[in-house]
Amino acid sequence: MGQIETRREEGKDLRKQVPRSSHGAFERQPGVNPVAILLGQDEGRVQSLVPVRHERMGESAYAFYRAGAKLMAVDLSSTPTTKLMAQLCGDAHLANFGWYGSPERDLVFDVNDFDETLPGSFEWDLKRMAASFAIASADNGFDDEDSRKSAAASVNAYSDGMAELAQRGFLDVWYSQVSADDILNTLEADGKTKKARKAGKKVKKARGKDSMHVLGKLTETVDGKTRIRSDPPFVVPLRDMAADLRPDDVRQIVHDTMASYVTSVPDGFAVLLDRYRYVDMAFKVVGVGSVGTRCFIVFLEGRDATDPLFLQIKQAEKSALEAHFPPSVYDHPGHRVVAGQQLMQTSSDIFLGWTGGIDGHQYYVRQLKDMKASVDVASLDPKDMQRYAKACGATLARSHSRSGDPAVMSGYMGSGDVFADAITDFAVAYAAQNEADYQTWMTFMASDGAPDET
């Protein structure tokens, strides 16, 4: 028996301890209070922005789900766990996949959010992804059958992708990636010429979203000087910051943070960064679950006004998974985020780095909106949702295979429907739980009351 078959058998043997069908059931454990868990995450955030976070969470059941990585981690902790370890995204919902620019200036498709990344049991990411498709499908008005199909498509693509990756050499797996052209070619091969043209326009637009594009979107010229445009409360330049953001301290924080950040990037990139000069900075509201955490954008200028660079400095905290898996080997949560991203992505931002906790908080740094694009989920019909689910499932398999053992994971999942059906059953059940939690949240927000203690 060869090495691959031996590792497959190891995965098959695990089924005796954690039956594949056992993943299908979900019942919340007593004492889990979703509102209390979500409100608990408001502690330590910029309090003037907490209402914005609550409002965004209330936009839809899917928006609520996006903010619930910690809540779902609590729920997953009581479900069967294989302990087949891989570097997890930790928040692998469908909006955390998308296109971005590689260092070679190609447009690639991959997981693109790593605030919660941590080594963990592979099916935790898979369950969060599958449930996101069931929830987003219901939000789009799809019937139960189509919602189930989209969740199942993501799981089947993951399982098929892992089986294929198990046959490859380690370097081949490491270099594997999905380009924008790969997705366009798939659409054209399927005869979806109209959708291919539409996707082609999105790709072309993404390729134009470089620093010059950001310059036009985020800045204005006043008295001959370029500065970040104020758009409160979402973008607030230093000059307009309210007292609770402590603008005098923020300037020093960002200055010290940038100096510390440079030491975390390779020497060559540090030399590149040193050639840029500071122009302006601002506080920025990001995401749904991240609203209220500290996030700054820094505007730098290189050769001249036509050579801008925008960096995002984002607060890093402990992963929501650290209460359920061994803690990160990195003391600095920003280092955890950067290391996890570089492990899961084939190509990563050259400006990724982390900074010290100068103000009592810790941060990681990345380039702002570099050739980024994402799918407009609300515009997808059932067939489109299933195609997108397949792309995300295959992508997550590739990301997990870089750190986990694809042969063992594939051996555990098998080639039949048992595992895929179980994860899909879980996704549908968790979508129903999320809807109930969302309604509880909306009732709480309407009453402006306090969550129950039970």
Lateral arrangement of strands in the main beta sheet: 8-9-10-11-13-12
* Fraction of helical residues: 40-55%
The proportion of strand residues reads 5-15%
Please tally the helical runs, counting DSSP H or I stretches of 4 or more residues.
17
CA distance, first residue to last residue = 54 Å
Outline type: globular
Major sheet characteristics: 6 strands, antiparallel
Could you state the order of secondary-structure elements as H and E?
Answer: HHHHHEEEEHHHEHHHEEEHHEEEHEEHHH
Q: Poorly predicted ranges (pLDDT <50, ≥5 residues)?
A: 450-454
Mean pLDDT across all amino acids? 88
Q: What is the number of independent domains?
A: 2
